[in-house]
Write a structure and sequence with these properties.
11 helices; 4-stranded antiparallel β-sheet; 295 residues; globular; single chain; binds flavin-adenine dinucleotide
């Protein structure tokens, strides 16, 4: 039972000097220490009593955490502590990965986005995370500094359930990396919330499509769905590669996306409503993408 508290419980603030020190401290205090960046999930959950932490480990200032760089040969790197407003405004993101700028801009409010980060959205592993669909369709990877060194995890394998990730004790996420997007691609994120701003998604749909001469239809599409399964869900729409794409084929693909979802009833919407909204938003997003790549 979660009870609302008037203030934060006591904790020790820890500011390690290096990634190695942060990782060691988190590993040595597994279960009682938690890394944080913007704190927009962390402090709310601590205040509400949903999470307990004896130590909060600030990792924002550590090496590479504030980097945002585009390499025309390798793609985009976004340091874990880069806030969402910076991502939305970054020329590199707006030019090469506009769907990421768009999705980042739908999280909460402008004020909150000056603190909230992309990596925090991923590590929080909420099925409703607004940036995660865009990250999934773009093929993002998570860079991790852990006890056994540095490693990269595909974001599609990162989520293990609501609030659960593949991170282990002592792991610190340092960046999200995005490969070069496919030539001629287009992508779109559509969010349905109870309010225009400041609310979690009832349903979120990110769609991406691109020309591919190796596909029978000459095109490939995928969608990622938020708030309709225990984890953000990536769905490859193979049927749209196998046969010519038209409005009927897109409607069938949207039905397939809805069938792949596994929503629940909650305060924001019923499972049935969510499934219908996946169908409608997927159809809308896919159609917008198709018009751009087929133009
Ligand atoms: C009023 C309000 C409205 C919101 N609206 C939305 C919304 O519309 N859409 C949406 O998607 N989210 C929303 N959120 C949730 C939140 O703002 C986002 O999930 C945000 O992106 C979290 O980023 P952060 O940097 O603040 O994360 P933090 O709170 O710092 O961390 C989040 C989680 O990640 C872990 N973590 C942080 N940094 C690291 C690291 N480097 N390595 C390993 N683990 C780490 C923490 O331990 C914690 O479990 C809202 C929150 C509030 C309070």
């Amino acid at each position: 039972m979660v009870t609302a508290h008037p203030g934060l419980p006591e904790f020790d603030y820890v500011k390690p000097a290096t990634l190695a020190e942060a990782s060691r401290f988190l590993a040595e205090h597994a279960g009682e220490a938690r890394a944080f960046m913007g704190g927009t999930d962390t402090f709310v959950r601590l205040r509400d009593g949903a999470w307990k932490a004896k130590y909060l480990v600030d990792v924002k200032h550590l090496e590479g955490m504030q980097a945002l760089a585009f390499d025309p040969a390798a793609g985009l790197t976004i340091g874990a502590a880069v806030n969402l407003n910076r991502i939305s405004a970054a020329p590199e993101v707006r030019l090469h990965y506009p769907v990421l700028a768009e999705a980042a801009g739908t999280v909460a409010s402008y004020q909150l986005r000056t603190r909230a980060t992309l990596a925090g959205n991923a590590c929080n592993a909420s099925p409703a995370g607004d940036t995660l669909g865009a990250c999934l369709v773009l093929g993002a990877e998570v860079s991790v500094y852990g006890s056994a060194g540095v490693r990269r995890l595909a974001l599609k394998d990162f989520f293990r359930g609501p609030g659960k990730t593949a991170l282990q004790a002592g792991d610190v996420v340092t960046a999200l990396r995005f490969p070069l997007p496919p030539a001629g691609y287009a992508a779109k994120y559509l969010k349905l919330g109870r309010n225009a701003i400041g609310d979690l998604a009832i349903v979120g749909v990110a769609a991406l499509g691109y020309p591919d001469a190796a596909a029978a239809s000459g095109l490939r599409f995928r969608v990622a769905l938020a708030s309709v399964a225990p984890t953000p869900l990536l769905v490859e729409l193979a049927a749209l590669s196998a046969a010519p794409v038209d409005e009927t084929a897109l409607a069938a693909a949207a039905e397939a996306a809805a069938a792949a979802s596994a929503p629940i009833d909650d305060v924001r919407g019923s499972a049935e409503y969510r499934r219908l909204m996946v169908r409608n938003l997927a159809r809308q997003a896919l159609t917008e993408v198709w018009r751009q790549i087929a133009a």
